[in-house]
Amino acid sequence: MAQNSPSRGGGIFDKVPLPVIGGAAALVVIGIIIVGVALGGGGGDDTTGVTGSTGVTAQRSPTPTSISGGLQTAQPTAQATADLTQPTAQAENLPSIGDGARFQIPRFNVDAPITYRAVGGDGIMPNPEGPDDVAYYDFSAWPGKGGRPGAGNPIFAGHVDSGHQACDNGTEPPPCTAVLWDLNNLAVGDEIHVVLDGTLYKYAVTSNEPVNASTGPWDQIVSSTADPTLTIITCGGDFNRDTGEYDKRQVVKASFIGQEPATS
Asked: Which is nearest to 121 in space by CA: 96, 104, 138, 99?
């Protein structure tokens, strides 16, 4: 996801939230999941609803939004495409996230705090707090969407860069690269870890691909799955300096491979 200025890193229902990620909007799957989340630009200060290019369409679905810094120039390519035909299921979403929850990508030494965001009836996914955290999205208002670690399809999003806020705990001035700067380089088989309430949940990447922020199959992307999976989203593609948004969202999906007690 990106913020409005350069910063580190937006079916069965009548209405479905759409991901909005990028510059001036809330997250669409960040700036994060309904294409309304702004995942570029380092977000956090943009909490307004999604309108216009990051707005909710007539047929709403969970969508990521954006708030970017425009630093990500690499054109995203697909490592593998997601299987959106797998069986869906109802899954419990988390009503809150406790202290100490972490989102980890061992390959890139990512170890980020997880913040809680609820997707309301408008289907808008709010931005993460800033360039260094990863947001977890509670889709309780959208039955059949999302999940929790170890069940369903928990949805996470984070910024790719930041144009407003300093990155790396305030040590890197904007524009700067954010927590999910390297997401587009994840390969099939790489692990993603979620630490929650003393348990380490492990996932292995199954796909990594760019998705159009406004026309992608977001309804299916954020749907709950019968076999436990995980989805993480950030911004990518071409950056529009007039709107402060990227035109793509990089979407990584992973399959659950096990859990164990977390070690400090």
From this structure: 138
Dihedral, 256, 217, 246, 52 alpha carbons, nearest 10: -130
For residues 264 and 176, give the distance between their C-alpha atoms in angstroms, rounded to a whole number.
Answer: 29
SS3 183: helix
Structural tokens at position 30: 């960040």
Output Rg (C-alpha) for the chain, integer angstroms. Answer: 16
Tell me the C-alpha distance between 229 and 194, whole Å.
Answer: 12
What are the C-alpha distances in Å from 218 to residues 189, 249, 261? 23, 10, 33
Tracing tokens 């299921």 back to the chain, one arrives at 89
Q: Which residue has the tokens 């047929």?
A: 59
Take residue 83 and report the two structure tokens written for it: 């299987």
Place of tokens 């199959």: 217
Distance CA 198, CA 221 (A): 28
Before 175, cis peptide (omega within 30)?
yes
The residue type of 147 is: G
The rounded distance, in Å, linking the Cα atoms of 254 and 127 is 22
Predicted TM-score (pTM) of the model is 0.78
**Mean pLDDT of the region 190-208:** 97
DSSP string for residues in 186-235: --TT-EEEEEETTEEEEEEEEEEEEEETTTS-HHHHTB-BSS-EEEEEEE
Residue 229: per-residue pLDDT = 97
Q: Domains, the chain, ranges and CATH? A: 7-261 (2.40.260.10)
231-246 pLDDT per residue, tens: 999 999 888 888 888 9
